[in-house]
Amino acid sequence: MLEKFKIEFKWASIFTAISIIWMYTEKYLGLHDEHIEYHSIVGLVIIVPLALSIYLCLKEKKRDYYNGEMTWQKAFLSGALLSLVIAGLSIGTTYVMTQYVSPDFFSVAIEKSVAKGTNREMMEQFFNLNSYISQGIMFYLAFGVMISALMALIIRSKAKAKF
Hints:
Blueprint: H1 6-28, H2 39-42, H3 47-65, H4 72-101, H5 105-115, H6 120-126, H7 129-155
Helix pairs in contact: 1-3, 1-4, 3-4, 3-7, 4-7
């Protein structure tokens, strides 16, 4: 059974590695401390490697598993499964970011928000490990499924005209 989905697991692993590299890049750019107010906007750049991972996964799945013939439904389901695995792995990447890459990320985010006049209690509910894990799962599921639907249109095999 796992053999059937090895391509999706491979690309989820590749994307997870890219995510960890991206976290270190964010840290280096100051998006976890002095420029934290830009973190959520700049963080959306991760959509580009997500879309590329989905595209390359579907392309490989079509070529190697379906022998060049893949319907939209099969491509979409493959992309949705990839998104689900990525969402699951995002729990680990979020943990790595908040415990090892930037252990003070939440406290910095809370203090900067409170300094701008935002309610501390509200920020403490937003900036914590459980909240960020939930946000990551929902983000990767939502965007992953949308991107999968679009990429499935590109990857699918065109129906051959019958005369």
